[in-house]
Write a structure and sequence with these properties.
By secondary structure, the protein is an alpha+beta fold. It contains 24 helices and 21 strands. The relative contact order is 0.11.
């Protein structure tokens, strides 16, 4: 039996004696696995997070199944439609249909008897309208102002109690329609009074009944909203007794089966969605057969699942592209580690070559040596990919199928990297005694970097004309295309190569004349001049890595700044609330607050036939302190607002492009105006220009009620949660509160933030790659540096001088790479920002925001790396290390 040679027996653990090579293999495999696995993990987590966000938005009751049964009436007492409500029979039927569907809880029953007129007993002088209803647990989800929930009777809103001057213990008279079509009067005691639901923001418990609580007209509509009748709550048993002898036609009963989990995996949610959709279709068919009376089922779960799938469709292309690019860069590092392995073990490789070892044998043994480190690095990369998801998508989850796919992708990447280590080591082994150059001089001297620069400039022009985004035809979602990622790489890589090529001759001349400079500078210049090809490769690699990092960071900072400005435009300030137009701004308020009246389409340019404009009537005295203002929107508010109250023609601020405007038509009046044009203003929309004027100045000219609006808005500035609480409390008592922070929850914004955040994460990994390349540069020179340090010490070279010279050398390399990377990244990002608007229907246009803080932090970090590298590389070598270095040289 043939014995296994010692080199092969020791191969699995050989790299433990060559720690720099071990670190290179482990780190390269780590990056490969991280890049390969992060795309499927991130895509699945983004979809899961989108699903969770949407479920949180729609709430469990809307995400589940709502079954609404409408009584047709008109056949009261027939065999097909027995007397009274069918509550018990319908409850058994619907519970039976939902039995066995996972993640769906028991139902909440609601019976709505319709809009009815109520008065005091035997007093018809004052009346009000209510929506008579019974709902499971309703009194636990209102703010009870007076009364005992255990007392029998009806619970009315405070607005009804104030109108009818009723309190608990009083009696209320309700008029309903009996079976003969006549009016029937029912007297019921008042058990309690609760705060009207419209006074507070929508709560999850009432999500399916907002049409009965809040105005049906949105904020951007040109008509003022009208509040519906408030609920009057009674028990279900009381309604059953009432409709035992009263026509139930028009009565609506709702069974809400809630979706019981807020964090489902997407495959589980899709299975539940399928069950609910089948039940909904079956109920729709039954209703068509009855031709009138029957059930209608609705659920928001398909919307949530659809949003998750759209998120995956939007995130997957750019993340896959980024992952493939990152894996390619990491494979280059892995391949370099194979060459580095041969360089570090040059004497051993030469001896084996002289003994006639085959290249294939050396490559195979190198592959075996790198097997365990590659597996370890791959495992760490897989774990880091999962940890990365926890950082950037903490609300997302990865299902088992995706976990398997990500693991297989990481294993495939590590396998390719392992083969590349063996192949590169074999090539380096075969070429270690070759001399001369095989490349033609013209090919060596050809300015290939100009080709990269030219291609980068062409793609940059394409970016400026909107060619940086790709649109998914199935979903309509836009995402960054290959062009948007190639531009910074080509610009930075080409520029760095050109700088390295053009800078080599001047660097050589400077090194030759550097004897007059301080010794540390002289030594640094001499080493840089001798670096040549290795130095150029290091500059290009570091510049490309830093350029990708800064490009991603610039896109993220610009996106966040754009969303922040859009949010303040839409919300007015940190928070806003709606109040009655007759209600003035609170005299005492804990935070800066201002009152604004908005009339959408409330004016015309010039005459009554002119183009429509929106009008915002503000209080200039309180406006500046209560809002956020950006210089890109226009001149400072301190110079704009005082002019609004000046005598003479009415002075107004108008958004948009300047046009001739001397008169403003409001209602039937035409008002002479003077105009200051601004780019943007809080409260504006994309539908029409916004005219901003002083409410007092307008009232002095043509009357205080000219805008004729029912509602006004309070805009307040301060910590969001505290401001919202203050707006809802007395004396403001605002409802319909919205915040600027809520705009970041928009699905399109979340999708863009996820994509660019993932890009930034890979950019950080690329930045780490630059530092790793710097480490390889130092290790490649370790033997020569050891000898140079030893001889320098014997000649009186101080350690401080040696460390300073090395730090200057590393600092110069990183400084050139940083300058080139910053210029290319900012130029490319500036072209992409204008075409990456996640909310194109909301003004203003996207803004470019350079990441100044990140630049400062990166400068400090690179300075520390250069200083630490200089100190570590200049340390005094051990005697045995010096002897070994001299022997191997």
């Amino acid at each position: 039996m043939r014995r296994v040679p010692p080199h092969w027996r020791k191969a699995p653990l050989t790299l433990l004696h060559h720690r720099p090579v071990l670190a290179a293999v482990v780190f390269g495999s780590f990056l490969v696995a991280l890049a390969a696995a992060s795309s499927p993990f991130f895509t699945a987590a983004a979809g899961s997070a989108a699903l969770r966000d949407k479920l949180h938005e729609v709430t469990p009751l809307a995400a589940g199944l709502e079954i609404s049964y409408i009584y047709a009436g008109g056949r009261f007492g027939s065999t097909e439609h027995p007397v009274g409500l069918h509550t018990a029979r319908l409850d058994r039927t619907y519970r039976g249909q939902l039995r066995g569907v996972p993640l769906v809880g028991p139902p909440i029953l609601t019976t709505i008897a319709g809009r009815l007129q109520v008065t005091r007993v035997n007093d018809f002088s004052v009346s009000d309208n209510v929506t008579l209803a019974a709902r499971t647990g309703a009194l636990d989800h209102v703010r009870r102002l007076a009364g005992d929930p255990r007392a029998p009777g009806i619970w009315i809103a405070d607005t009804v109690a104030d109108t009818l001057d009723l309190a608990p213990g009083g009696r209320l008279q309700i008029q309903v329609t009996d079976s003969e079509g006549g009016a029937k009067v029912v007297v019921v005691p008042v058990a309690g009074v609760y705060e009207a639901l419209w006074r507070r923001t929508p709560r999850p418990y009432w999500v399916n009944f907002t049409r009965f609580i809040y105005p049906s007209v949105g904020r951007t509509d040109r008509f003022d909203p009208v509040l519906p009748a408030t609920f009057a709550f009674v028990s279900q048993a009381w309604l059953e007794r009432l409709y035992a002898n009263v026509d139930p036609g028009g009565v609506e009963q709702d069974w809400e089966f809630p979706f019981t989990t807020s964090a489902p995996l997407l495959p589980d949610a899709k299975r539940v969605e399928g069950d609910l959709v089948r039940i909904r279709s079956r109920l729709r068919g039954e209703r068509q057969l009855t031709r009138g009376e029957g059930a209608v089922a609705t659920t928001a779960l398909p919307t949530a699942v659809g949003l998750a799938e759209q998120t995956i469709a939007g995130v997957e292309p750019p993340t896959r592209l980024l992952s493939e690019a990152g894996a390619l860069i990491a494979l280059i590092v892995v391949g370099a580690s194979g060459v580095f392995l041969v360089a570090r073990r040059r004497s051993e490789a030469r001896a084996l070559f002289a003994r006639g070892e085959a290249v294939s044998s050396f490559a195979a043994r190198t592959l075996l040596e790198a097997l365990l480190p590659s597996l370890a690095g791959g495992a760490l990369g897989l774990a880091a990919a999962l940890a990365l998801i926890r950082v950037f998508e903490p609300r997302g989850a990865v299902d088992p199928g995706t976990l398997v796919n990500g693991t297989l992708a990481a294993a495939a990447g590590v396998g390719v990297g392992l083969l590349l280590v063996g192949a590169s080591a074999g090539v380096a082994f075969a070429r270690q005694y070759e001399v001369g150059r095989r490349t033609h001089p013209l090919l060596r001297r050809a300015p290939w970097e100009l080709v990269a620069l030219l291609l980068g400039l062409v793609l940059l022009l394409r970016l400026r004309h909107g060619g940086g985004l790709a649109r998914d035809k199935a979903t309509g979602i836009s995402h960054p295309s290959l062009v948007s990622f190639l531009v910074p790489l080509l610009l930075v890589g080409g520029t760095a190569t050109l700088v390295a090529r053009l800078g080599t001759p001047p660097l050589g001349r400077a090194a030759a004349r550097a004897w007059r400079l301080p010794l540390a500078v002289h030594l640094a210049l001499r080493r840089l001049a001798a670096g040549r090809g290795v130095l150029a490769l290091l500059v290009v690699t570091c510049a490309v890595a830093l350029g990708l990092l800064l490009y991603a960071q610039t896109l993220v900072s610009s996106l966040r700044e754009s969303v922040r400005q859009k949010a303040f435009i839409a919300a007015g300030s940190d928070a806003q609330g709606t109040v009655d137009a007759s209600q003035p701004a609170p005299a005492r308020f804990r935070f800066p607050v201002t009152r604004v009246e908005l009339a959408f389409g409330g004016g015309r340019i010039g005459s009554e036939d002119g183009d429509p404009v929106d009008i915002a009537a503000i209080d200039p005295a309180t406006f500046e302190r209560a809002v956020h203002w950006y210089s890109s929107w226009g001149p400072p508010l301190a110079s704009l607002l005082p002019r609004l109250d000046e005598p003479g023609p009415l002075h107004i601020l108008v958004t948009g492009k300047p046009i001739p405007l001397s008169r403003l038509s409001v209602g039937t009046r035409q008002i002479p105006v003077t105009v200051t044009w601004v780019h943007a203003f809080p409260g504006m929309t994309a539908n029409a220009p916004l005219v901003v004027l002083s409410k007092r100045a307008l009232a002095r000219r043509i009357g205080a009620d000219t805008l004729d609006v029912q509602w006004a808005e309070l805009w307040a500035k301060g910590p969001t949660d505290e401001v919202v609480a203050a707006l809802r409390a007395r004396p403001a008592e605002a409802f319909y509160t919205t915040t600027a922070v809520a705009f970041s929850d928009n699905p399109n914004v979340a999708l863009a933030l996820r994509t660019f955040g993932f890009m930034r994460a890979l950019g950080i990994a690329a930045g780490a790659l630059a530092l790793f390349c710097m480490l390889l540069y130092l290790l490649a020179r370790q033997r020569a540096q050891t000898i140079a340090t030893a001889f320098g010490r014997r000649m009186g070279l101080a350690r401080v001088t040696a460390a300073a010279s090395l730090a200057l050398e590393l600092g110069a390399i990183l400084a050139v790479a940083f300058v080139v990377a910053t210029g290319g990244a900012l130029l490319a990002a500036g072209s992409v920002v204008g075409h990456s608007d996640p909310l194109p229907l909301l003004p203003p246009s996207p803004v470019f925001a350079a990441p100044w803080l990140s630049l400062v932090v990166l400068i400090l970090l690179l300075g520390c790396v250069a200083a630490i590298g200089g100190v570590v590389a200049s340390r005094r070598p051990r005697d045995e290390a010096l002897v070994e270095a001299i022997r191997l040289e």
